[in-house]
Design goal:
The chain has 195 residues and is of the alpha+beta class. It is built from seven helices and eight strands. The longest helix has 13 residues. The protein starts with 13 loop residues before the first strand and ends in a 6-residue tail after the last strand. About 3% of the residues have low confidence.
């Protein structure tokens, strides 16, 4: 099974990662209505947790650019960036993808393009995939073995969160180095986004 490089960029037990194609970090932050927070504090993952804390009370994200994508890394897996209203705003004139994982709970994956949610998938409820055209995300997830019938053989070896990250890497060409993800990055408070 293929290892996920993105998995080395996020905590293994809980994460949120949202990626927006062809927009600069400044453009993404403008769409999130956080430009009034500039200058943004530069935080490593640990520093961001110390500054913003655990839990959903003070959601925050660290921001960086890699290739044609701007990455938003949840400080603590709050999932606010996975909301349809946020993804549609981020994807206007482009596309956005997101994955969210909360310990042994659930994995959610979403894809939005041109202001529409194409697919919103919850691994706990495979039959409840929503969106206007989930075919691309279904193809990507199928290619990494997400919908296999013989769950017992791979579930323990390869978690749904790793499969989701590999699927997004392959299908959308996402690439982020762990060194960049662990460096001090601009960090923004997302408390104004409804949770």
């Amino acid at each position: 099974m293929t290892e996920s490089l993105l998995a080395d960029c996020v905590p293994g037990d809980r994460f949120g990662i949202t990626c927006v194609r062809e927009l600069s970090p400044d453009e993404v932050l403008s769409r999130l209505d956080v430009v009034d927070q500039a200058p943004y504090p530069l935080c490593t993952p640990d520093e961001a947790l110390q500054r913003f804390g655990w839990g959903h009370e003070t959601p925050a994200a660290r921001v960086c650019r890699s290739g044609e994508w701007t990455f938003l890394l949840d400080v603590d897996a709050h999932g606010r960036l996975l909301q349809p209203s946020v993804l549609t705003r981020l994807s206007m004139g482009t596309e956005a993808v997101a994955a969210w994982y909360l310990m042994a709970g659930t994995t959610r994956i979403a894809h939005a393009r041109d202001g529409r949610v194409m697919a919103d998938f919850d691994a706990w409820a495979v039959h409840l995939m929503r969106g206007t055209d989930p075919s691309r995300l279904v193809r990507a997830l199928t290619a990494v073995g997400f919908f296999r019938e013989d769950d017992d053989d791979y579930e323990d070896d390869w978690a749904s969160s790793s499969m989701a990250l590999v699927a997004l890497e392959r299908e959308f060409g996402l690439a982020l180095s762990p060194e960049v993800a662990k460096d001090a990055l601009p960090t923004v408070n997302l408390q104004h986004l409804q949770g």
